[in-house]
């Protein structure tokens, strides 16, 4: 028997219950970190102080060019050494957020550059302080435009949450592997995990497309 | 603190060859699949388009980790024998990143101006001649930068082969070094990260040369900047196309977050 329905029904609730919740929590929290930190990186990257923008550039390139898995391991093993003992889930969220922040930074940068120069000139003409120029003129125009692109990275992140199983955070794929190893039957749990990811990412991409249409409509 | 660096570098280097093999193997398969399914998505036949679309959505939508677990744990049960981990890994990398690459090829071919097609019709070129001599050479230039990003993603993806016991660099660090030298974790992981960084830079240089070659094919003069600026050239228009292909599913428009 290649596919055992009884076994599949037995493991299904475990994968969807525990696994899905962990995956969603990690993705949501990771995205919040990535969205916030990404904006900070994008602004630092534009800093007029060359050292600051240079270091930020190097940091972004470095994080983007190296595997998330190794970064997860790095934080997991090194943070306790510097006195930060966090639970694996928090470590994982930080790693996901940090990694994706370097991508969202590029997204924000594109959004900021897409604001017409006339807006900057108008802000100067009105003698707005720099801070208000950013908070009242530039960002309100730049950020909504890039929301769909940010959403895409959240979808990507969801599909990378399985990496957390390497530090003991079991989400969809992690639970599937654990369940499979217990009964030594992997076909059903891993297939269920795959279908679940497919459904989730297709649903999420519909959401992003809807967001995209709304943003375009508003512009 | 630094006395073991020689040992660390040596141990990680033992995994270097496997990382390179997995990455190159993945790149070859991914590139072939990108062109096959990218062009299939532009086919006039509905069935061909549908098959290509299903391939792309399937391999992008299911997580790479799940694909690895499936091919490593589930497939042997179905076919009756265990595939070599490295082969399984290369196949998954190729199939997974080929799906993203197909979107790049499709996008680049579609970005060739319509007038070029009209010109081909006016010159009475056959569809095959049109594709080979006019459309592909022009879209090739557009493809190289986003493929550069994709290949770096693939290199990063090769670290996941640790999970299916391929003894590549991450495995060497995690399973061989960390277990014995956990107090020097910072040094070990930094070395691993630097190894990946160097490989990523090498990929970028290679792709930069390819871009110059592809540019010459369509009579584009090499830009005045030197090779060192290659690192920065991954940005710009390429980012928009790659972001759209890599990030999500379906056709995300280059306009919403596009670099302009």
Automatic annotation (TrEMBL), chain A:
Coiled coil: none annotated. It is a multi-pass membrane protein. InterPro entries: AA_ABC_transptr_permease_3TM, ArtM/GltK/GlnP/TcyL/YhdX-like, Ectoine_EhuD, MetI-like, MetI-like_sf. SUPFAM superfamilies: MetI-like. It comes from the Bacteria. Residues 20-208 form the ABC transmembrane type-1 domain. This is Ectoine/hydroxyectoine ABC transporter permease subunit EhuD. Belongs to the binding-protein-dependent transport system permease family. NCBIfam families: ectoine_ehuD (TIGR03003), HEQRo_perm_3TM (TIGR01726). GO terms for molecular function: transmembrane transporter activity. Its main location: membrane. It comes from Actinophytocola xinjiangensis. It is found in: Cell membrane. GO terms for biological process: amino acid transport. Keywords: Amino-acid transport, Cell membrane, Membrane, Transmembrane, Transmembrane helix, Transport.
Automatic annotation (TrEMBL), chain B:
Pfam families: BPD_transp_1. Its main location: membrane. The chain crosses the membrane at residues 22-42, 79-100, 186-210. It comes from Actinophytocola xinjiangensis. GO terms for biological process: amino acid transport. Belongs to the binding-protein-dependent transport system permease family. CDD domains: TM_PBP2. This is Ectoine/hydroxyectoine ABC transporter permease subunit EhuC. Residues 16-203 form the ABC transmembrane type-1 domain. The keyword Transmembrane helix applies.
């Amino acid at each position: 028997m290649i596919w055992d329905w009884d076994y599949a029904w037995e493991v299904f609730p475990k994968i969807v219950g525990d696994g899905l919740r962990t995956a969603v929590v990690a993705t949501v929290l990771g995205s919040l970190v990535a969205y916030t930190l990404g904006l900070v990186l994008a602004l630092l990257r534009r800093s007029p102080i060359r050292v600051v923008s240079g270091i930020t550039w190097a940091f972004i390139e470095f994080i983007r060019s190296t595997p998330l898995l190794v970064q997860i391991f790095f934080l997991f093993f090194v943070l306790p050494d510097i006195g930060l003992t966090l639970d694996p889930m928090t470590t994982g969220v930080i790693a996901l957020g940090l990694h994706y922040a370097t991508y969202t930074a590029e997204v924000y940068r594109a959004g900021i550059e897409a604001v017409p120069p006339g807006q900057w000139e108008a802000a100067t003409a009105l003698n707005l302080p720099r801070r208000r120029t950013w908070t009242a003129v530039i960002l309100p125009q730049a950020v909504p435009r890039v929301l769909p692109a940010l959403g895409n990275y959240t979808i990507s992140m969801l599909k990378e949450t399985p990496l957390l199983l390497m530090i003991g955070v079991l989400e969809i794929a992690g639970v599937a592997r654990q369940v499979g190893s217990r009964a030594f039957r992997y076909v059903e749990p891993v297939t269920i995990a795959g279908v679940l990811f497919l459904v989730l990412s297709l649903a999420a991409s519909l959401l992003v497309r809807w967001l995209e249409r709304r943003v375009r409509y508003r512009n | 603190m630094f006395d073991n660096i020689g040992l660390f570098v040596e141990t990680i280097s033992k995994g270097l060859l496997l990382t390179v093999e997995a990455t190159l193997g993945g790149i070859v398969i991914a590139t072939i699949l990108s062109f096959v399914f990218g062009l299939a998505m532009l086919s006039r036949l509905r069935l061909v388009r549908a098959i290509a679309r299903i391939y792309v959505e399937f391999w992008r939508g299911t997580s790479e980790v799940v694909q690895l677990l499936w091919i490593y744990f589930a497939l042997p049960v179905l076919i009756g024998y265990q595939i070599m981990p490295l082969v399984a890994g290369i196949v998954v990398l190729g199939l997974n990143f080929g799906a993203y690459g197909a979107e790049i090829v499709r996008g680049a071919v579609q970005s060739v101006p319509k007038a070029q097609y009209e010109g081909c019709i006016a010159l009475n070129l056959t569809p095959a001649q049109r594709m080979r001599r006019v459309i592909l050479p022009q879209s090739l230039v557009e493809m190289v930068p986003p493929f550069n990003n994709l290949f770096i993603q693939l290199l990063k993806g090769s670290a996941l082969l640790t999970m299916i016991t391929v003894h590549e660099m991450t495995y060497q660090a995690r399973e061989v070094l960390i277990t014995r030298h956990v107090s020097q974790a910072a040094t070990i992981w930094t070395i691993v990260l630097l190894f990946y960084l160097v490989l990523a830079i090498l990929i970028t240089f290679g792709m930069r040369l390819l871009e110059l070659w592809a540019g010459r094919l369509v009579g584009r003069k090499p830009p005045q900047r030197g090779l060192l600026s290659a690192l920065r050239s991954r940005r710009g228009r390429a980012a928009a196309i790659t972001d759209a292909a890599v990030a999500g599913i379906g056709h995300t428009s280059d306009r919403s977050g596009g670099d302009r």
